[in-house]
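Sample entry (199 residues):
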Amino acid sequence: MKNIFLAIPFLLFLSCHNSKAMTANPLDQSGRKEQQPEDSVLLDLQKNNEVVLAFAIETYAWAKTKNYKILALNNNEWKGFNYTVNNTSHTSSGLMPVNVSTDSCNALWKFVKDKEATEIVGDDGKDFCTDQKKNNCNINDGATWRLLFITKNSIADPSYYEPEFYEKCCPGNSNRQLFLQVANKIKSIVGSNEKGIEQ
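Predicted structure, serialized as tokens:
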């Protein structure tokens, strides 16, 4: 009988510990505590929010620009932003607020966690097609797409070079397919920026 009374607190401890693990951030669980964002605006978002999900298209051929679509979660409230940086002219739009649906944002965050999207492996700008027979899969001066999964103390930022093009030309990369799903969900939630440029 004495053993039962000793076992109950132990079981309660395990139950609470498991509940905490289930609600913990997937970046923290994976141990991917890599770096802080280099961009000062993204760094401020990291400091002031629990979670930041962002999608960016980076171009380098003519004007060096980065166009971001951002969702930030703090105190159970989601906020959306568009943000553009032009490294050629050294200018930035600053954060442009966008109205976003709480239900859509919550569904996206659940999708990211359920699919373990924070573990996506990018292509590092090479090996776009695993099938060597796809010699016609080539694009010049294309853009790099990037996802950012940011918490207070961790960041994952997988990127793909022209992922839609290569997914059509040589499909089958499961990481790239998941990357595109998340990117398209963020684009759908945040929408176009104030200048009317649809990303």
